[in-house]
């Protein structure tokens, strides 16, 4: 039995940020190659600090859904997962036993050698007639002067493509560092050029900045050749590599190659199993309230609805029947605003989910990530909490600033953010004697400050709180 965990960046502001990770997780679930596929995020829930608690088995493979190695894959993710590793990840990955689970952490999918195949596939889609006589390939990376690893993979792929002999010329260009894509015509001689963005997803860069920077007019753009009159070069613009369906195969291969992966896999994780057994037991005794929802077991199915919709006729409610339906339903509040923290007291009303017993745990996980596991641990006095000082000390990069926050600044921000949240701040010494397992629906523990709070404290320390949000979100 094996669990696969896909790690994405996520966002406190953009509800679409996790879409690519969702899509791959859904695709991999449908392949059925893993007994469980779970997503975890830096800026969404379940957080990197929580996600391992939410997996069902003791054999866990964690894959960062990033296009290149860098700060997140080498520093942030290993630190937040508690891997006890910092710095470059070896090709065989990093294996650790954490809380009774064997966790294998791999390189990000973007550095797998099979990405070269994805580049060729994207190039063929954009220009089916490409040939080695008159077609140049440009592999375009983001590039940043902060981490040389982020451009290394672009150069590596360009070199592989050169050696493949499939193109007349192969070039690596970048948006944010030299050689910049804006100067491509000074380097590329071929008549036809395929431009493949080595980006993880379709977004601002692929849809706006890249086309604007080089003057693309669509999927095919004809340029006048530099220093000539009447001679042209035609550029074919492909979709980014990160959204190609073959990425799912790259992920599977990465997981198979993970250090020490065994065919046998692991067992059910005891604490996780106990927590969910306790939920089933409560449900068999009658309706169960957790946070803002009411759960009811009914002839082999489980219904979830807003507790304030209790007694409402089913016909008056929108019905969803899949965990993914629940996930999409609860991302926005009634006003259409994004809910980056799932336990904020603004769950929309007007819907019900009817789920099979098999689908129900995943749906509840999407609704209230890690709440079952953490509440059960709290119920048994086994939840370890992390005080604010320890959370602040752990922060690096732009978040290191929160170490300067005074207790009053933290409290000011927390009273506003946490004031709208169902959870009780154990990390700030608030007492929680009963949980929903004791019949107290709002009895949900917060073991440590979430990344939304950390980001807001950073804004407070910077004196920018309330202004237009910057990169910390
Ligand atoms: S830190 Fe505050 S807002 Fe974040 S999960 Fe905990 S209680 Fe809720």
TrEMBL record:
<dbReference type="GO" id="GO:0016829">
    <property type="term" value="F:lyase activity"/>
</dbReference>
<keyword id="KW-0456">Lyase</keyword>
<dbReference type="InterPro" id="IPR002762">
    <property type="entry name" value="CbiX-like"/>
</dbReference>
<feature type="domain" description="DR2241 4Fe-4S iron-sulfur cluster binding">
    <location>
        <begin position="381"/>
        <end position="459"/>
    </location>
</feature>
<keyword id="KW-0479">Metal-binding</keyword>
<dbReference type="Pfam" id="PF18009">
    <property type="entry name" value="Fer4_23"/>
</dbReference>
<dbReference type="Pfam" id="PF18069">
    <property type="entry name" value="DR2241"/>
</dbReference>
<dbReference type="InterPro" id="IPR050963">
    <property type="entry name" value="Sirohydro_Cobaltochel/CbiX"/>
</dbReference>
<protein>
    <submittedName>
        <fullName>Cobalamin biosynthesis protein CbiX</fullName>
    </submittedName>
</protein>
<feature type="domain" description="DR2241 stabilising">
    <location>
        <begin position="272"/>
        <end position="378"/>
    </location>
</feature>
<dbReference type="InterPro" id="IPR041346">
    <property type="entry name" value="DR2241_Fer4"/>
</dbReference>
<dbReference type="InterPro" id="IPR041181">
    <property type="entry name" value="DR2241_middle"/>
</dbReference>
<dbReference type="Pfam" id="PF01903">
    <property type="entry name" value="CbiX"/>
</dbReference>
<dbReference type="GO" id="GO:0046872">
    <property type="term" value="F:metal ion binding"/>
</dbReference>
């Amino acid at each position: 039995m094996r669990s696969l965990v896909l790690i994405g960046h996520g966002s406190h502001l953009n509800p679409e940020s996790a879409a690519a990770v969702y899509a791959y997780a859904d695709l991999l679930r449908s392949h059925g190659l893993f007994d469980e596929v779970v997503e975890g995020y830096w800026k969404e829930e379940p957080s990197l600090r929580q996600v391992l608690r939410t997996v069902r088995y003791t054999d866990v493979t964690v894959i960062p859904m990033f296009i290149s190695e860098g700060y997140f894959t080498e520093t942030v993710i290993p630190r937040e997962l508690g891997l006890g590793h910092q710095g470059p990840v070896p090709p065989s990955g990093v294996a650790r036993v954490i809380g009774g689970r064997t966790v294998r952490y791999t390189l990000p999918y973007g550095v797998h050698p099979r990405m070269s195949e994805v580049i060729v596939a994207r190039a063929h889609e954009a220009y089916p007639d490409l040939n080695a006589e008159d077609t140049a390939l440009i592999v375009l990376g983001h590039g940043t002067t902060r981490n040389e690893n982020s451009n290394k993979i672009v150069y590596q792929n360009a070199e592989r493509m050169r050696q493949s002999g499939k193109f007349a010329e192969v070039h690596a260009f970048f948006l944010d560092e030299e050689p910049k894509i804006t100067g491509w015509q000074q380097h590329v001689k071929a008549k036809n050029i395929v431009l493949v963005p080595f980006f993880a997803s379709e977004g601002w860069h692929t849809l706006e900045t890249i086309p604007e920077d080089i003057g693309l007019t669509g999927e095919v753009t004809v340029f006048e050749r530099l220093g000539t009159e009447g001679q042209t070069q035609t550029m074919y613009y492909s979709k980014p590599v990160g959204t190609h369906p073959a990425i799912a195969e790259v992920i599977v291969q990465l997981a198979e190659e993970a250090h020490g992966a065994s065919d046998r896999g692991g067992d059910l994780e005891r604490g996780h199993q106990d927590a969910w057994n306790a939920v089933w037991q409560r449900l068999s005794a009658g309706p169960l309230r957790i946070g803002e929802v009411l759960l009811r077991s009914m002839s082999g199915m489980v219904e979830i609805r807003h507790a304030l919709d209790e007694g409402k006729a089913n016909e008056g409610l929108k019905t969803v029947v899949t965990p993914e339906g629940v996930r999409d339903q609860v991302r926005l509040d009634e006003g259409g605003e994004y809910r980056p923290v799932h336990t904020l007291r603004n769950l929309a009303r007007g819907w019900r989910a009817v789920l099979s017993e098999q689908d129900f745990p995943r749906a509840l996980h999407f609704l209230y990530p890690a709440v079952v596991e953490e509440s059960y641990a709290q119920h048994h006095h086994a939840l370890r909490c992390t005080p604010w000082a320890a959370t602040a000390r752990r922060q690096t990069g732009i978040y290191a600033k929160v170490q300067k926050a005074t207790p009053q600044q933290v409290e000011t921000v927390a009273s506003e953010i946490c004031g709208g949240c169902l959870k009780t701040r154990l990390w700030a010494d608030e007492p929680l004697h009963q949980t929903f397992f004791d019949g107290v629906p709002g009895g949900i523990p917060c073991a440590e400050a979430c990344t939304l709070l950390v980001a807001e404290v950073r804004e407070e320390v910077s004196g920018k709180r309330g202004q237009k949000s910057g990169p910390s979100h």
